[in-house]
Write a structure and sequence with these properties.
Elements (H helix, E strand, L loop, with lengths): L2 E3 L3 E7 L10 E7 L2 H10 L4 E3 L14 E4 L8 E3 L3 E5 L4 H6 L1 H6 L3 H6 L5 H4 L4 H6 L6 H7 L3 E5 L3 E4 H4 L9 E7 L4 E8 L6 E10 L2 E7 L6 E6 L5 H10 L11 H22 L1
Parallel strand pairs: 3-5, 4-5
Antiparallel strand pairs: 1-2, 2-3, 6-7, 7-10, 8-9, 8-10, 11-12, 12-13, 13-14
Helix pairs in contact: 9-10
Length: 279
């Protein structure tokens, strides 16, 4: 192994590493120390792969010749101010689960959204940035955050509302931080799974923000979508019916579209009822 250290990043060269290269070939790992250096490495190598928690990357059969390590960029902290929470892209799901400020603000909704994700060992490695940037259909984190006043901070794209970011095509920008702006909303998160640590069959984040119900529905099985309905004198069942009708559902091995729609309607109704009692 040889090592070079530059002004902005460190490079390691690995031989016969199954994760980085084919047998008999050499792969390269770059440890970025700033967003600018990471972007430069990413732009100059179209075949490069970003390394976060590596929990999905290690399951891939793709041949990776250049791995860009984001762990040296200092983006593994959660900062809280009077106006917002700023969550670095390299923060782990376990940090979210245990953060007192976030869980107090969301009344435990964020803790609930991650506690079924495999196990503590997995959550100690899986990153918030990977969960949000991937925009996976099964993502509990994306579904929960979509029901809040949430934004992503991109290196080139600036600060973008999460509801807009979800609809964008994936590009080569860097997700630097995830921002939760504090307001007076009440939020609940709930999911249904065939087994405790499996992917959700359906997931719902339900929030009452002022005079509006904001509901995110994920694992449908497409990526999460946000729908809204006016908070008025209608009962929870009527509101849940209207919200569910705005969502498109699909089928896969975990359930049919009809089953998912029926589950979502019940789960949304129950959370609205609970929030009505609190408010």
């Amino acid at each position: 192994m040889t090592k070079q250290q530059g002004k902005c990043w460190k490079e390691d060269f690995f031989d016969n590493d199954k994760q980085l290269c084919k047998a008999g070939e050499s792969g390269r790992s770059i440890r970025a120390e700033s967003e600018a250096c990471e972007q430069n490495s990413w732009r100059n190598d179209v075949d490069a792969a970003r390394v976060g928690g590596m929990l999905w990357l290690k399951m891939s059969t793709a041949q990776i010749q250049t791995a860009i390590d984001l762990s040296g960029m200092g983006l593994d902290q959660i900062e809280e101010s009077e106006e917002e929470f700023k969550i670095g892209c390299m923060c782990t799901l376990r940090q979210l689960e245990l953060h007192k400020g976030i869980n107090q603000y969301t009344d435990g909704a964020v803790r609930e959204c991650v506690r079924h994700i495999v196990g503590v060992q997995f959550r100690n490695q899986a990153t918030v940035g990977g969960s949000i940037f991937g925009r996976f259909g099964f993502s509990d984190v994306l579904t929960c955050f979509l029901a809040m006043d949430c934004y992503v901070e991109l290196y080139k794209g600036g600060i973008v509302p999460l509801r807009e970011f979800v609809c964008q095509k994936r590009d080569r920008d860097i997700l630097v931080n995830v921002i939760i702006r504090k307001d007076v909303r009440k939020i609940r998160y709930v999911s249904s799974r065939r087994t405790k640590t499996d992917f959700p069959v359906i997931a719902c984040g339900v929030a009452k923000a002022g005079e509006e119900w904001q509901v995110s529905v994920g694992a449908r099985p497409m990526k999460a979508v946000l729908v809204t309905e006016k908070a008025d004198e209608r009962n929870a069942a009527e509101i849940a019916e209207k919200l569910t009708e705005q969502v498109t559902f699909g089928s896969n091995m975990r359930g049919s579209s009809e089953y998912r729609k029926a589950l979502a309607k019940v789960l949304i109704r129950r959370q609205i009822e609970a929030l009505m009692e609190e408010c």
